[in-house]
Each structure stands twice: as C-alpha cells, then as structure tokens.
Amino acid sequence: MSMIAKFVGPRYMELAKAWTPSLMAFGAAGGLLGLYLTDWKVITQYIPLYGGKYKETRDI
Fold it and tell me: Which residues are listed as membrane-spanning (predicted)?
C-alpha cells in the first residue's frame, strides 16, 4: 500500500484513478493554451535550426 493511500483512503484513491485521464486532458489543454498565449519567440528560440532566425545582428 502506498503512503498516500494510508492517508487518503481507498474510496478517494478510486476516485483519483477515475479522474486521472480527465485531469491529464485538462492539463494538456491548459498547457497548449499557455503556449498559445505566450510570446512565440520565447519558446521557439530554443528549437534547433528554427531558432536561428532570431539572432540579432548589430549594425555599428
């Protein structure tokens, strides 16, 4: 028996198992929404080959 099950109880463990797929779907949707709402440059600058287009050149 896991340590969490000792504190929570079997009924709530079964409820957590039943809700896990839904929570994962909502978490993924929330993550994608957060990615959509952020500045794309912040995320895409770390993608190899694609992030090179953000390198700034300074004209002195």
Answer: 18-37
Pick from 17, 18, 21: which is nearest to 4 by CA?
Answer: 17
Q: pLDDT tens digits, residue range 3-33? A: 777 788 888 889 989 999 999 999 999 988 9
Question: Whole-prediction pTM value?
Answer: 0.56
51 φ, ψ (degrees, to nearest 5): -70, -15
End-to-end CA distance of the chain: 67
Residue pair 50/44 in contact (Cβ under 8 Å)? The answer is yes
Q: Cα–Cα distance between 24 and 29 in angstroms, integer?
A: 9
Residue type, 46: Y
